[in-house]
From TrEMBL:
Biased composition (Basic and acidic residues): 55-65, 124-141, 170-185
One Gene Ontology biological process: spliceosomal complex disassembly
Organism: Synaphobranchus kaupii
UniProt keyword list: Nucleus
Single GO cellular component term: U2-type post-mRNA release spliceosomal complex
Pfam families attached to this UniProt entry: GCFC, NTR2
Compositional bias of kind Basic residues: 1-12, 113-123, 207-216
Name of this protein: GCF C-terminal domain-containing protein
Composition skew (Polar residues), residue ranges: 89-98
Record field: compositional bias (Acidic residues): 18-30, 142-156, 186-196
Subcellular location, record wording: Nucleus
Length: 737
């Protein structure tokens, strides 16, 4: 960047040069200064020297004008006082000094002419130093006026202060002179050098600003520090005995608190020391060896237990499958028999009612004779009118065969663990082993998560005890009466059921969820008949007891419970869609209550009412919208209401309405502010009101009719249809109701 040699040198401020540049040039300057001071003859640059001309030099560059400051005047004064004129360039000794000038002594003309001559010679070589203009020489001779006119802009050398030695320049000054020289000589150079120069100048200016800020900050900090040191309050607060007592008391209380804290810390350390000492004594007595032996024995026991259960699980699965197959076959046989009987009866009565085909080979006549024979049982059917049909039961010989096979399977099940020690086959003995672990080494027992492992470990043994358990039978044993239930319950209560974080409290609930619920689900999907009141009542009662005792049945995230609920809903929906059948016959057959058509329709109607009752048993256990969909939208509105509207006898119609209303849960009509809460019951309510109007218009004063109407009003009142009750009472004067 600075490859050219400088042609001219200009003085710049020494203080503006960077400290780094000054340090680099100190050695060079000292080498050049020492000989000059000794000989009093410093070597001047070629561009500098003594000149007698009064014309100022025009070689000032932009860099000099930018860098030269007011300090140059002080430097010039210093140079004038210290430097001496070299011998070959000095004027005569007769030149007056500054003190002589005060005596304003004037040199003679000879001296003046010699000085002017010397100035002209220096000007010809351009080796002169411009002097300050002080006064116009008024003492010039007339013969030199022409020359003074040409140099009118200059001032005489003797009127200036002459610098007899050059000022020592720093590296920064030399760089500025070089850049200034380039600017004056190479005006037409490319703009790249100018940009570098400008960039260098900006960097130097920023450096100077930073140094200024740094020095200002340091000075401000020093002032602040001195101010803080000297910040002495003018007057001190008054001190009284009370204030001193208060301060001493506060200090004393602080020391007492510290003392109490250290005393408590000392007590805690003493307790820890005693505990550590007791643990050390226990370890020294050989408890570690005892613990190791226990862990080793427990590990061997659990390995043997797992191997034993793995072998016996295969046999348990086989026996369990035999029992389930036996029960499934029985359920399918009863269901097929019932459906076949309904199909045959419907076909036979259909032929009797609508037969017009002459090529029936006498089958219609035979059916008619059988139908006429059924009329003899009219009195018996009338006596049992309104009763729901009984559940399907196997024939006596089928029941005996079923019991025989069942006993054989149970004997086979009892022999599964005949060759196994009680420590590996009895739930109580197994839990006693883990209880010993829990009592002796509670920390390791909890760290091993035994409470989470026991339900899966005991599952084969529990399934073995539940092989003969039938949740659909009233004769089946209660689940809480099994030995495994009592053993698990006692194991959970030993540690303390009040502990919230005790994982053993959930062992029984986990066994119910993971072992008992899947078994119930199998019975629901394959054995349960929703038209059987006995089975439905047992299943719903079992579910309700588990719902009340175990929160797992209320947890929507439990997959086994969710699967069981879906199985119950699917079986009820299948029964409504497949097993409900109520035929329709001409009015002439239905007017006769002893006709086989009326009897068959009546049986099918009450079979549907029975299914409605079995479905409403699940009120509060299954979602409410499912009950309304299956019980009201499908059963009541699609099947039962058609039969009720077409009933020829008012007495039979009212009895059927009473049976239907008895199936509704009472909670549907509680806390409804004397208004119906379920819109799906409005059709049934309107039918009751219409039947009451019809009976009252027909013969309102008959005691039999009034009794029937009273029953209808009772049903309407129980269903919170108070407006309908008021309408009948006011229109037909049913006083006292």
């Amino acid at each position: 960047m600075f490859s050219k040699k400088p042609k001219r040198n200009f003085r710049t401020r020494r203080n503006e040069s960077s400290e780094e540049d000054e340090e680099k040039t100190n050695e060079e300057e000292e080498k050049s200064i020492k000989p000059a001071c000794a000989l009093r003859r410093p070597k001047l640059p070629q561009s500098r020297g003594i000149s007698c001309t009064s014309k100022p030099e025009k070689a000032t560059a932009k860099t000099e004008s930018h860098n030269v400051s007011a300090e140059d005047s002080d430097d010039n004064v210093t140079d004038e006082k210290l430097l001496e004129l070299p011998e070959q360039e000095t004027l005569t000794n007769d030149t007056p000094s500054s003190s002589d000038e005060k005596e304003d002594a004037i040199p003679d003309a000879k001296q003046i002419r010699a000085a002017r001559k010397q100035r002209r010679e220096a000007k010809a070589h351009k080796d002169y130093i411009p002097l300050n203009r002080e006064q116009e020489g008024s003492r010039l001779s007339e013969e030199e006026e022409d020359e003074s006119e040409r140099d009118s802009d200059e001032i005489d050398d003797h009127e200036r202060r002459i610098q007899f030695a050059p000022k020592l320049k720093t590296l920064r000054e030399r760089l500025a002179e070089e850049m200034s020289g380039r600017g004056s000589e190479d005006d037409g150079t490319d703009s790249e050098e100018d940009e570098d120069r400008i960039l260098w100048e900006e960097q130097q200016i920023r450096k100077g600003v930073r140094m200024q800020k740094h020095s200002a900050r340091n000075s401000s900090q020093e002032v602040a520090r001195r101010k803080r040191k000297c910040d002495i309050p003018e007057s001190l607060p008054q001190v009284s005995i009370g204030i001193i007592k208060k301060r001493v008391g506060a200090k004393l209380e602080t020391l007492r608190q510290v003392n109490r804290g250290r005393a408590m810390e000392r007590q805690r350390i003493q307790v820890e020391m005693e505990s550590a000492r007791a643990a050390l004594e226990q370890l020294e007595k050989g408890s570690a060896h005892k613990q190791h032996r226990f862990y080793k024995a427990m590990r061997l026991y659990t390995q043997n237990l797992l191997q034993c259960l793995a072998e016996k699980t295969v046999e348990i699965n086989a026996v369990e499958l035999e029992v389930h197959t036996l029960l499934i076959d029985q359920a399918e046989a009863l269901l097929s028999r019932r459906r076949e009987a309904v199909r045959e009866e419907s076909t036979r009565l259909q032929l009797v009612s609508y037969n017009t085909d002459p090529s029936d080979n006498g089958y219609a006549g035979q059916a008619l004779e059988e139908a006429q024979g059924q009329s003899q049982l009219c009195e018996t059917a009338e006596a049992n009118f309104g009763d729901l049909p009984a559940d399907e039961e196997p024939q006596p010989e089928e029941a005996a065969e079923l019991c025989r096979k069942r006993d054989e399977i149970m004997r086979e099940a009892e022999n599964i663990f005949a060759d196994v020690h009680e420590d590996f086959s009895d739930v109580k003995n197994i839990l006693s082993k883990f209880d010993e672990w829990r009592v002796s080494f509670a920390e390791s027992y909890d760290n091993a998560y035994i409470g989470l492992c026991l339900p899966k470990l005991l599952a084969p043994l529990i399934r073995h005890q539940l092989i003969g358990w039938d949740p659909l039978s009233t004769d089946s044993e209660d689940i809480e009466a099994f030995p495994w239930y009592t053993a698990v319950q006692q194991f959970c209560q030993k540690r303390g059921s009040k502990e919230v974080e005790n994982p053993d409290n959930s062992i029984l609930a986990a066994i119910i969820e993971k072992t008992v619920v899947p078994k119930i689900q199998g019975f629901v999907e394959l054995v349960w008949d929703p038209l059987s009141t006995g089975q439905s009542h047992c299943l719903a009662s079992l579910w309700r007891s588990l719902w009340d005792d175990y929160l797992v049945f209320r947890d929507e995230k439990s997959k086994p419970v969710k699967a069981l609920l879906e199985a119950v809903i699917d079986r009820m929906r299948s029964a409504v869609d497949v097993d409900v059948f109520i035929p329709l016959y001409p009015k002439k057959f239905l007017d006769d209550t002893c006709s086989p058509q009326f009897q068959f329709q009546d049986r099918q109607f009450y079979s549907a009412v029975k299914l409605l009752h079995n479905i409403t048993l699940w009120h509060g256990l299954v979602p409410e919208d499912v009950l309304i969909e299956l019980g009201l939208n499908k059963l009541l509105s699609r099947y039962l209401m058609i039969t009720l509207r077409n009933a020829p006898c008012e007495k039979h119609s009212v009895e059927k309405c009473k049976k239907v209303a008895a199936c509704f849960p009472k909670s549907w009509f509680e806390d409804v502010n004397d208004s119906p809460s379920i819109p799906e019951l409005q059709t049934f309510s309107k039918h009751l009101l219409q039947t009451a109007h019809t009976l009252c218009k027909k013969s309102p004063n008959t005691s039999t009719i009034r009794d029937i109407v009273t029953d209808l009003l009772t049903l309407l009142r129980n269903m919170k249809e108070l407006d309908s009750v008021t309408e009948i009472v006011e229109n037909y004067h049913f006083e006292g109701f």
